[in-house]
Amino acid sequence: MLKEDYSIAITGRQIYEEDSGEITLNTVGTYTERAGSRFIAYREYEEENPSISHTAVLKVENGKVTLIRSGTSTRLILEEGKRHLCLYDMGYGTVTVGVFTSELRSTLRKKGGILNIKYTLDIDSNFSSANEIKIEVKPRQAVGA
User: Fold this and answer.
1) Cα–Cα distance measured from residue 43 to residue 67, given in angstroms and rounded to the nearest whole number
2) Which of 48, 81, 86, 119 has the most beta carbons within 10 angstroms of its beta carbon?
């Protein structure tokens, strides 16, 4: 069970050929530090069936972020200046995608901060999309405060 003592705001931008889109997710979750790595965890709900959720965990290390979703085979590795082949669960099957991270900036500290990541996705070495994600983590305000 997640403690949910942090507010997590995620903004994702995707550019695909001539089209682009942006999603925003404001949620609650946990933010902890263990063995020099920081962990951001929150629940994601399925669009088709909101009663089904998966826990998303971002492991933030120096110059590297790993995204893992519970109950799926998704494991994305975002490492600045490198391309990784990663598994991504599409809901109806898993695909292998190439992930090249061009920029990874973190101001995460003990009480939160901001994580900015720019990366591209490719499938079978063919460009799929350019992506930017911003994750802001801060302690939740106590109710009535």
Assistant:
1) 13
2) 119
Phi, psi of 81 (to 5 degrees): 80, 5
Model pTM score: 0.88
Q: What size, in residues, is the chain? A: 145
Domain boundaries, the chain: 6-139
Residue by residue, DSSP assigns 28-95 as EEEEEEETTEEEEEEEEE-SS-TT-EEEEEEEEETTEEEEEETTS--EEEEEBT-EEEEEEE-SS-EE
> Which of 36-40, 51-55, 73-77 comes out lowest in average pLDDT?
51-55
Answer whether CATH 2.40.128.20 is correct for domain 6-139.
yes
Q: Tell me how far apart the alpha carbons of residues 36 and 7 are, in angstroms, rounded to a whole number.
A: 22
Cα dihedral 45, 18, 121, 30 in deg (nearest 10): -30
